[in-house]
Amino acid sequence: MRRLISPTLIRQVAIGLVCVAILLAVLSMYLRPEFLLTLADQVWGCF
């Protein structure tokens, strides 16, 4: 019996889902004003 879903396809879908989850987590941080203020203070502290 032939496999309908190849392991390569499963791997690509899993990697895609992980990337989307990371992207959504990062973008959700920008909705929090205190995070943006902390980030700006840290960047400004480098100068």
| Average of per-residue pLDDT values | 89
Unreliable stretches (pLDDT < 50, length at least 5) are: none
State the assembly state of the protein chains: single chain
Query: H/E series, N to C?
Result: HH
Strand content: under 5%
Distance between the termini: 64 Å
Description of the molecule:
- There is one protein chain.
- With 47 residues, the chain is mainly alpha-helical.
- 77% of the residues lie in helices and 0% in strands.
- The chain has helices spanning 7-29, 33-45.
- 0% of the residues are buried.
Properties at a glance:
2 helices; mainly alpha; 77% helix; 47 residues
Produce a short descriptive summary.
With 47 residues, the chain is mainly alpha-helical.
Topology:
Elements: H1 7-29, H2 33-45
